[in-house]
Target: Transcriptional regulator
Amino acid sequence: MTQDAVIKDEEIAAQAAAWVVRLRADDVTVEDLDAAAAWLSADLAHRRAFDEAEGLWAATDHLVHAQASPVVDLAAHRERRKGIDRRWMVAAPAMAAALAAAVFLAPLLQSAPTVVYQTAPGETRTVALEDGSRLQINGGSTLSVKMELGRRLVHMDQAEAVFDVAHDAGRPFLIDVGESQVRVVGTAFNIRRSAQETEVSVLRGVVEVGDLDRSGRKVRLTVGQAVRRADADDRMTVAPVDVRTAAAWTRGRRAYDDKPLSEIAADLSRAFATPVTVAPDAANLRFSGVLVLDDETAVIGRLERFLPIKATRGPQGVRLERR
Model:
């Protein structure tokens, strides 16, 4: 590698480290998210450096409880890789002590109460947990929360919520959703659970999505990435996501890029009190665009103008049929 290439590599590493710190800040702005997304998409080397910086942060975060350095020096990290192994060896006794303590604390962990949060279709709710985490829950959702001493547990049924998780390296935040488990320490992300699939979109930080039954099967996501897991084939598909629109429902709108009408109908059934269903011959019609969720009748009217469908109203709600 030439000297110029080395210099460029270290410059990208420094930029990546700075973005990791900025995106984890409490005062991160929409402008920051836009700039970070542009930087990540500009060069594959940016994404690789960012992932490495996030990995370094996550791997060493629980070892450092004092004041954190404002910037992670990835260049020095590359020269000290063996040092990281030594730090893990030093940390091993503390980890063993924590494991032993967990045995004695088990009865206390089991006594933590479970709190169920439920919203009706058309209702949204913001919940502040005792650890400082915040949940924005979409309509037609049910989830339960159990705040144990050594971990924070959430179970989601058919639901959608944005999680802004308070940082606590010693108390991971676990979300059981469908056949997956989402594991975080401190970050922000949107989870959408439907009858057929689970989708996790990362708005800030790092999220690990694994399998409830197979611990070795997992994917690691950073800001601007999403994973979809369909129940039918059990595949996990990772793709880029626009952080500005991934949780747009919290601002009264939905953004779609070539999505089936069946998915849009499910979203509308959360957003409004009257359920929306789709006839089988119209379920796979595709739609791209932004829907403002101001009024159900108005939204349905916009869909009728864009797609070859007609809406009929009955005792069971609104049904969308092909014209």
In short: Helices lie at 3-23, 30-42, 44-61, 74-79, 81-110, 261-271, 296-306.
